[in-house]
């Protein structure tokens, strides 16, 4: 008790500023500590006091609803519908009614909606004339439940209890506000006055500092602060009448403050304010209890007997409902306005001037802005002399049909709403309430309202004639004498008075003396009105709450709705109106972000490719030829769909017209030798700039000149040239359009040749011509040309896929051109093709003999044989020198016994090819572009395994594989002086192990088993990661759907919140742990531990991509969920949003939610979310394989935006709009690990590495040998990242080390395929080094591990390298041979290395490494096979002859003709399936073979398919590891 008193005194001293002129305890604004034993009684936020048990459906919180209780609207119509215009039985004035509403606003604040939002919507009966005139039956008026104490409503022992948001004391909180800060916001801190607007007669309009309720005006739809005054109660502006009452008390305070300031000029502002406030509150208390309440109830209030500390004055739910409904039945449809002389004031409205303010059109009116003193005075005076409606059950339509509506409806039913509010409050039944207050409970319906039996019967029917079910509100309304409502109201006010320690009559509180109490008791509301209006006492009756006969200014008549302006009908507010287009545009823009990023990437790619081409052109500038000055410049027209190109025309002396490009390279030669007459067509319009030169057996030449003079100059030169060459010229003119139609373009010529070849093969192979295709041309002239089509030398060369000036083309063309006219006709081509397609080996060798018998003497000299050999070698980029070709020629002559001859007959030539009769028989002339349907017996793949007796053992899935190595090849592979290796012998002999035939189902099962075996670690990790991700999604979804604290957000946007929250958890997890896949140093360390048996560390990059794609999908889901949320939030009223986002929104009654763009661009989560989407679109697009290859620098820069991404993700979640930040839970550990790994890399990156040697190798390969850093340990097959600051960029690029771990230096072989590698090659070129003077240094990061370093873990390993992908195997081969030479213990017993290259010249440096390996490989661990792919098809004539020469060279010298290595060289692509199949036969004791491939994706896919196909069989298992470049 003493502690409480001390706290009160301390607070009083603080609040009162310890003013010496304020000796009393200043009453708190928030109602606390009025009762010193129960501090919170009557305070803001205190609970309502239940006088009876709660009447809920479940006994806890669920309100009674249909069918247990009647429909609220139907019950309202039954009880409250009736004629208005009946005066009050007690002659109670309208002023008393609205004074009563003002009193309720002082002690009651139950309008605040509860959180989470719960609704007891009012279903409107079908065909309701006001709310459903169309008879749809779908109208539902929203009704939101009010705020309750969250700790209640959890069990039947503690049912829901509502709270009061203002003080429960008659303490003037409707004047001064329910808090100290509110009160301060109302003051102007000058002379103790409340702040006023212009003129000082009304409060100032609200500026947002005071949380005034700002509901929309239902009659005009206006909102905002305009016309809303700062008052003590948030709902003080609800209607003009209540507003006028609040203004009266506002004026009264300022009136008293002015009087006190006049009487006490030395008092401070606080002194004056507190004295005035004390007197106003006391006057207010006196008027309420001793003047207004007796007038309202017609019953005097018992005398005050003193403060009762144990009395609980808390407001009861029964009082809340009873007081509101009792006053509502007395509300008239409007109020008069009069001056002190009883003159009525007209009020303007849409229907004309009326002497009455219509209630239904005055809710939350914004017309009161700039209100003058007379407006308030006249309204107060008018209400003081106007008699209210009768105290019955009838409620005027202004309340029943046109009360201001909540949410999107502008109107609602006041009575129905309060019926629902009673159910929300859990009010007891009518009989229970009467019994509680000492009244006789209802036993018979007839006793309820004898004056309204019909209405009672209708109500009884709604309650199934059960009096026990009758609710409090309708029962109290139907009473004739309102005994229940009166008793409840009187009981409440008496308890308020007796339990109030600061009641003005309590002499123990030190507020007033007995004399002052008497003065206060004698002050009436008439005195207040006289003080605050321009009326005199004589112009008002003694009691302004009751009007009696003889009182001044009687009302003209009792108001009825028919005499007043019509109420504005109900309208529905569409919160999303006008937002659909903008919202759709934002969605489209968000969807187009990847496209925009793709477009930007495309532009960058074009610019990079252009720069790269410029760089390449600069490299080739030294070899370009300049066009001679004699050439004529023009634009060549290629066709309507092809851009014209700049060309130069040269007239050669040998009747040849050459067409050159800007670099001086010959594009085509137009031969005029075979033409007797040259036809030229000139254009005769459009500036006369076009010229057409007809070429009967080729496509025409169409030239455009910049002006007619240039064309005339060229035409003159052409005339002189033709005259000198003795050629006739035929000139004609036509319009340019006709000229272009007449021209045969290159595309048209291509179509003619295509049809030419189709019909050629169709005739030769007896194929139906309909399959070959018919000719279809625009004119008979072109049809004739196609039938007589002849091939030029260039077209013939193109058909063979060779250059026009090659020796093979020259020989073949001379042989085929029988008539010597320089062209090959249909019949000539057919004759030679028949020999190659259907001829015997003798016929083919005879044809070849004739081809190279240049002097046609019937003999083939050594020179002619050499010419033949060199024509074949041309297709392999002239990989042999003339000396090597001569060596092969002499060797072949010697082996065949012709060493003494200088010439060969055809018989001798055919004898020389005797051992290759089968290959020669299959030889064809491969024509470029021939449809597959015409290719027979053509095999594109080459096997080096000869299968014998294949019919009984062959796997049907493998197909028939043509051989490419005979028995002699076995002998060739044996090295002189060495014992033949058993593996090599077994490799080319028949199988030693029986094969098992399996049906398709068994194969699929075996394939599945092998897949699981190969990828079991990957599968476990993916499944585990997916399970965690799924679990996170499900956990968050379940939490927000069923287990989250009841905020209402799930009920508002169920789907959106589940998707957005679940995906957010997945994104947080994925974006965090994706960092671990980029911890290269950690991965390199861990892959050497036992963990590598369980985690596929080599797949870190693939796993990184997989996580990234999954995270992208969840990011899209997250965005989609939030798009749903934004839409729902944009159509959700503010009362609900303030519950969902209490830290962002405050419910001020406006109900208007924020627009969609606010969520996107004016919130932290929205802005960061949009930025994250932009960032992701950029990062993902530039990370694609294509753009990463085209512009690695753009990928490097955009991917380093990950730092910004994580910053934005952290900011995005830190706003805690829906939940507290959780990203850190997932992020901290991976971030720390990644940070440590990155610091380790950075520590290495700062060290410069000196380059010891730089060498430019053929095919754009740059060989760099540089210093090996101290403590730099690595394994063969590992890779590093290097940067060169001399290039002006910090980009790090990955390259595989080609040096072996035992070497003292490190080496890289880098092929110039992109801008960075090309610039690096230029930097280390001799020219650049001459300028720099030294070798630029490098920065090194690594080493890092990969799958290729696992080669030593298999007994048999196959290494397949394609292109620059051979680099990891260079290190492995050198390491293997070194370890073997020092007798190091190796698990690996055999390695097969397959090198696939377009030409052996492409990577000559690797040939040197292989040569070193061959010399050092004493134990024959390595078997090398080289495949040269830059050749025609396998059984093409040229390939067959090269094959014969290669086998001969290997037989004689035990080394390859092309590479100089002992390794076998093949032509074509490797046949992986039969090769792997033979390994199972050669190594039957090996159960698992390691296959390691590195190169282009096409090659690695072929290897993967071969492994998958062989793994279907129940034999050795092939474990494939690959890397693409």
Write up this protein.
- With 1525 residues, the chain is of the alpha+beta class.
- The chain is built from 53 helices and 31 strands.
- The protein is elongated, with a radius of gyration of 51 Å.
- Mean pLDDT is 80; it is low at 1-18, 621-626, 767-784 and 929-997.
Task: Write the topology of this structure.
Layout lengths: L1 H14 L56 H9 L13 H14 L14 E2 L16 E2 L31 H4 L3 H7 L53 H24 L5 H29 L19 H12 L5 E3 L19 E3 L14 H12 L12 H4 L2 E2 L6 E2 L1 H12 L4 H7 L16 H10 L9 H7 L4 H16 L15 H9 L2 H8 L47 H41 L11 E5 L8 E7 L4 E5 L5 E6 L5 E7 L6 E4 L7 E4 L3 H17 L3 E7 L1 H7 L3 H19 L4 H4 L7 H8 L2 E2 L1 H8 L6 H10 L7 E2 H13 L2 H12 L7 E2 H12 L8 H14 L7 E2 L1 H7 L4 H6 L44 H7 L8 H6 L12 H15 L1 H28 L5 H4 L1 H20 L6 H7 L13 H31 L3 H7 L15 H6 L2 H19 L2 H6 L1 H8 L2 H13 L8 H23 L2 E2 L1 E7 L3 E7 L11 E5 L9 E4 L8 E7 L3 H9 L2 H7 L5 E7 L11 E7 L4 H15 L8 E8 L6 H13 L5 E7 L8 H17 L10 E4 ...
Parallel strand pairs: 11-14, 26-27, 26-30, 27-28, 28-29, 30-31
Antiparallel strand pairs: 1-2, 3-4, 5-6, 7-8, 7-13, 8-9, 9-10, 11-12, 12-13, 15-16, 17-18, 19-25, 20-21, 21-24, 22-23, 22-25
